Structure prediction request, 471 residues.
Amino acid sequence: MKYIDRIYINGQFVTPKGTEKADIISPVDGSVVAQLTYANESDTNDAIAAASEAFKHYSQSTIKERATYLQKIHDEIMKRMDDLIEATIIEYGATKERAKWSNMLAATTFSSHISILEQYPFEKKVNESKIVMEPVGVAALFTPWNSSSGSIAVKLAPALAAGCTVILKPSEFSPWQSQIIMECIDAAGLPAGVVNMVNGRGDVISKALMESPAVTKIAFTGSTQVGKIIAQQSIATMKRLTLELSGKSANIILDDADLSIAIPMALQASFMNNGQACIAGSRLLIPEGKTAEVREALLKATGNFKVGKPYNDGINVGPVASQKQYDRIQQYIGIGIEEGAEVIWGGPGRPEGLSDGFYVKPTIFMGVNNNMRIAREEIFGPVLSVIPYRNEEEAIAIANDTDYGLMAYISSKDVSHAEKVASKLKAGRVLINTLKHDPLAPFGGFKHSGIGRENGTFGLEAFMEVKVLIS
Prediction:
């Protein structure tokens, strides 16, 4: 068993002052694979002090120096890629393909910020004034358990590029992955105090971070419920905010779509990352007149999704992250049945032959309407709700009839027409006939799906303040 009993403060791995311990249970088989010692409020205050002191010097570093650090972090992550993939599979339950993709994305996020940094105009002329972009200060980064290394990278890379110093608060449910990333950052040789990591209970760590006036920026990924609490707490010290929150994304199959392409893509959009994705296309909107055809296509394509031990070849869906997640998803499947939706694939319980670990049957509901809870609430598991629409205007109305607005999907043979439909959707990203991720394009949501944007130039500017010089 692995013991994770170090935090990272002021350039060193140190023993936490906190004494509470927690077992880390692998969703693959339900076994205890690690034990985490929690940091406490005093540890967090030490991290804030270290970051505050380091900011005095790091904020004055050159573009060349910061670019060098970004490259070194990339290189160190690549050296530990096998370790990261192993940890992501065992600790989280990601399939081999997903674990490799997500950790490679983390590495390349650091290297891609070099060109963003080098090309960014930190000074520019506007009318009679000089505009100077300065680092916002000490940033607290809160990252989730469903994309540990990727979420760390997408926040940490722009913060470092901007000249900020950082306190990283990763999810206490993914400490093994976070520890490896921190070891990579340590090996990259950044100045002491530039990056610090405290891992522990969210309520304990966040209290110190949110109350400290020295922390001037918050970047959080997680549920809308927690995001709202953080937003309220930030007001007292006027912290700058980037919030990447929940989603309930619509996937619109337009009448002219090729179902042989659109349906397998829709299933992938819904079941990606074992269904644990804020961007999951969990509402599939289909033309009412093609219900029978869509049903047949879904039944045919879903058979290609294999649930099983995530380290095995050919597995598309591994376990969900915890017993709590398993129970939540089972509750929602039961709610869908009670609401009168029809299960055409999957349903309650574990898949056959997978009695240990937290495995869920990928489940498809038909006969869903947008007022049902399974269509309105984020389930965060491999559950797809199929909703018929009578015409295109109704499809757009259904897609927008949600508190969320993170992602949307459209399938159509006419891309130009699909773009017109996309212009009417309230979503931060709309993918047309693709599931591609553009790591340099802004990412974030409308409505309750968040505030601000990550990635690329938009993500860099989220860690900067604007100063105007007039002479």
